């Protein structure tokens, strides 16, 4: 959350209004989600051979809420010495994603490396990539609920903050209603019963 | 009795079984995966026809934790990502934050020299772990002990400088925690003296070893186009022929003043990556020798800005202003002007980058790592196809992934 306190003045380094030298050596541009794939494939044809990284940012109160950031690098796609590589161009493409439509076209058809990076953004921010061949969770367990890197996701996980922490005497996490992970207590009970070969509580599996 | 259903990754279901097809899952606790990696492979006889690496077993939410810590506190968890070379992580993170603060060109030269010294020492230490374990993967156990002996010397130096062997947390915003202690230079000189002989022994053990060559030459060949397409950097990219090194392409911390070569091979196989890393260790020592000469000149190791650097301890007792600055920095941290920035360094595994977003508060809004290991692990999808299942550990070893960084 943005702090209510204003930054202290008097120091050049910390004064946001002070004139500072240009801090980034990358070319920065912003595109709309609808124009994203066309723009990136044009850049790919222009010689940006590498998609260095792809990550998400959640700005919470801003509109559009999310940013997906593409870092591109222009490297020669042949055997190259240090002099031939030189100082390659870097480009940062930012794409705003509104909270009510968290869908972007995939770029894994342009750069294969986008595969896992997009899966990670999907896993941690809940932004889906249309046309991705295998979009499933990558870091969190497959049955996890919620998107952990969103700003409204609590630091300690939803299950722990939903219910009070158990007293020390009550050692069983399951009985106290606070499973050690983001799985719901009901799902956990069900899993334990299945592992013991018993009839799961609640009968039918919740859809 | 009902059974627990184990979900199969979608892409690896065998629809039609013919001949010798079989699905084999390696890991996540297999010792030669260098961490917790699961590789599900479909094999035909002994040849891998499809493979699907599964990660996430070491996910610790470091990026989320960093958002809830002060700017300087965040480096403590960030150092835990790549636990074999924590210095590169801390250096890269601080480079990004210093750019946001606009103090990049005000870092004292001595602080930069010590940063370069430790980064290069840790490059050697990290490659020592890789070399030792890579040797074990192919059955050459003795190299491991020589490597860890050399690494121990470097960890001793780290302990002396920062106070801890593995995660020293020695760097600070604007410089270092303190100058190098007495006796450090003597130990460093001893290491510089010892290094060429030890490297010679390691090269004798493995480089010309016919068994090692048999296991690595023409194994896991990575073409340039594939390397770029799948986002390989560092020794993996240079083993395939592109001499891209962040230290040369986007110099930082004064790397432009040191003379060093970028070892490059064109074969693209596991042996080429092995040779690139061995040469890199020699080049790192070449940089360390040049830094050693510069370190004879004393100087400050912290930026001269009371809003960022805590004042020296001895001034707190006599100066009211120093006491106030100290209290403000310790209790509420440094505030960083709003903005976003990408900074990268050449870590032992490749281009390590940090995309840092600030909203002007005393905590980072977002810290995104560009993990070289994750992209290298992703390479297994394409590199393993057509290889023997016995060569899988060699290929994983030659990519040198660190799973603290893959999963974060």
Q: Which structural category do the helix and sheet elements of chain A fall into? A: alpha/beta
The shape of chain B is globular
What is the terminal separation of chain B in angstroms?
A: 39 Å
What oligomeric state do these chains adopt? heterodimer
Summarize the largest interface: chains and residue counts. Answer: A-B, 65 and 72 residues
**Helix tally of chain A?**
5
CATH 2nd-level architecture of the domain at 27-77 and 86-130 in chain A: 2-Layer Sandwich
CATH class of the domain at 27-77 and 86-130 in chain A: Alpha Beta
Per the CATH scheme, the topology name of chain B is Cytochrome-c3 Hydrogenase, chain B
Instruction: Tally the beta strands of chain B.
Output: 8
Beta-strand portion of chain B reads 5-15%
CATH superfamily of chain B: Cytochrome-c3 Hydrogenase, chain B
Distance between the termini of chain A: 35 Å
Radius of gyration of chain A: 23 Å
Low-confidence stretches of chain A: 1-18, 168-179
CATH superfamily grouping of the domain at 27-77 and 86-130 in chain A: NADH:ubiquinone oxidoreductase Nqo5 subunit
Largest sheet of chain A: 4 strands, mixed
By DSSP, the count of extended strands of chain A is 6
Strand residue content of chain A: 15-25%
In summary, what is this structure?
The complex is a heterodimer of chains A (about 210) and B (about 400). Helix content of chain A is about 20%, strand content about 15%.
Give a structural overview.
The complex is a heterodimer of chains A (207) and B (408). Chain A is an alpha/beta fold and 207 residues long. Among the domains of chain A are: 27-77 and 86-130, NADH:ubiquinone oxidoreductase Nqo5 subunit (Beta Polymerase, domain 2), CATH 3.30.460.80; 158-195, no CATH class. Chain A has helices at 33-46, 82-85, 114-125, 158-162, 185-195; strands at 27-31, 50-58, 66-73, 90-97, 103-105, 128-130. Chain A has a 4-stranded mixed sheet, covered by helices on one side. A two-stranded parallel ribbon of chain A has the order 5-6. In chain A, strand 5, helix 3 and strand 6 (128-130) form a beta-alpha-beta unit. The model of chain A is unreliable at 1-18 and 168-179 (pLDDT under 50). Chain B has 408 residues and is an alpha+beta fold. Chain B has a single domain (62-375), classed as Cytochrome-c3 Hydrogenase, chain B (Orthogonal Bundle), CATH 1.10.645.10. Chain B contains 17 helices and 8 strands. The longest helix of chain B has 29 residues, at 109-137. Chain B is globular and about 80 Å long.
């Amino acid at each position: 959350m943005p702090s209510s306190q204003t930054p202290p003045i008097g120091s050049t380094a910390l004064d946001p209004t002070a004139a500072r030298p240009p801090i980034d050596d990358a070319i920065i541009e912003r595109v709309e989600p609808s124009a994203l794939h066309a723009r990136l494939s044009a850049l790919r044809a222009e010689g940006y051979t590498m998609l260095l990284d792809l990550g998400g940012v959640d700005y919470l109160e801003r509109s559009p809420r999310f940013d997906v950031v593409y870092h591109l690098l222009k490297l020669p796609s042949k055997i190259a010495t240090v002099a031939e590589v030189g100082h390659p161009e870097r480009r940062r493409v930012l794409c705003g994603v509104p909270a009510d439509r968290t869908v972007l076209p995939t770029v894994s058809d342009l750069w294969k490396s986008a595969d896992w990076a997009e899966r990670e953004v999907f896993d941690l921010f809940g932004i889906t990539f249309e046309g991705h061949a295998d979009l499933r969770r990558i870091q969190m367990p497959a049955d996890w609920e919620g998107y952990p890197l969103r700003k409204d996701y609590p630091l300690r996980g939803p299950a722990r903050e939903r219910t009070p922490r158990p007293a020390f005497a009550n050692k069983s996490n399951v009985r106290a209603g606070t499973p050690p992970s983001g799985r719901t207590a009901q799902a956990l009970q069900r899993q334990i019963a299945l592992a013991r070969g018993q009839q799961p509580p609640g009968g039918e599996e919740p859809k | 009795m009902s059974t627990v259903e184990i979900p199969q990754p979608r892409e690896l279901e065998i629809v039609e079984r013919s001949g010798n097809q079989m699905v084999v899952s390696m890991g996540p606790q297999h010792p030669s995966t260098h961490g917790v990696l699961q590789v599900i492979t479909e094999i035909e006889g002994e040849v891998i026809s499809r493979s699907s690496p599964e990660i996430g077993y070491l996910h610790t939410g470091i990026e989320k934790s960093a958002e809830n810590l002060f700017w300087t506190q965040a480096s403590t968890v960030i150092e835990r990502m790549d636990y074999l070379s924590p210095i590169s992580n801390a250096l890269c993170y601080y480079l990004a934050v210093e750019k946001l603060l606009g103090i990049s060109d005000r870092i004292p030269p001595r602080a930069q020299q010590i940063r370069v010294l430790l980064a290069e020492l840790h490059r050697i230490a990290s490659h020592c772990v890789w070399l030792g374990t890579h040797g074990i993967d192919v059955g050459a156990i003795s190299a491991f002990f020589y490597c860890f002996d050399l690494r121990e010397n470097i960890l001793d130096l780290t302990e002396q400088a920062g106070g801890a062997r593995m995660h020293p947390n020695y760097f600070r915003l604007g410089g270092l925690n303190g100058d190098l202690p007495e006796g450090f230079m003597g130990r460093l000189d001893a290491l510089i003296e010892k290094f060429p002989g030890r490297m010679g022994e390691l090269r004798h053990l493995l480089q010309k070893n016919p068994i090692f060559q048999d296991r690595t030459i023409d194994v896991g060949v990575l073409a340039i186009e594939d390397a770029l397409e799948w986002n390989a950097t560092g020794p993996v990219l240079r083993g395939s022929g592109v001499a891209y090194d962040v230290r040369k392409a986007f110099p930082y911390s004064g790397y432009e003043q040191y003379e060093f070569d970028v070892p490059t091979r064109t074969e693209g196989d596991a042996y080429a990556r092995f040779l690139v890393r061995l040469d890199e260790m020699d080049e790192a020592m070449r940089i360390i020798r040049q830094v050693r000469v510069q370190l004879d000149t004393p100087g400050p190791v912290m930026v001269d800005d009371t809003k960022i650097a805590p004042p020296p301890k001895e001034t707190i007792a006599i100066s009211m202003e120093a006491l106030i600055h100290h209290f403000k920095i310790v209790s509420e941290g440094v505030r960083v002007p709003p903005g976003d920035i990408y900074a990268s360094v050449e870590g032992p595994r490749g281009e390590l980058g940090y995309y840092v977003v600030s909203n002007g508060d005393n905590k980072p809004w977002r810290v995104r790592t560009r993990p070289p290991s994750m992209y290298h692990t992703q390479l297994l999808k394409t590199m393993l196809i057509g290889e023997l299942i016995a060569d899988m550990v060699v290929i994983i070893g030659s990519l040198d992934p660190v799973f603290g960084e893959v999963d974060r």
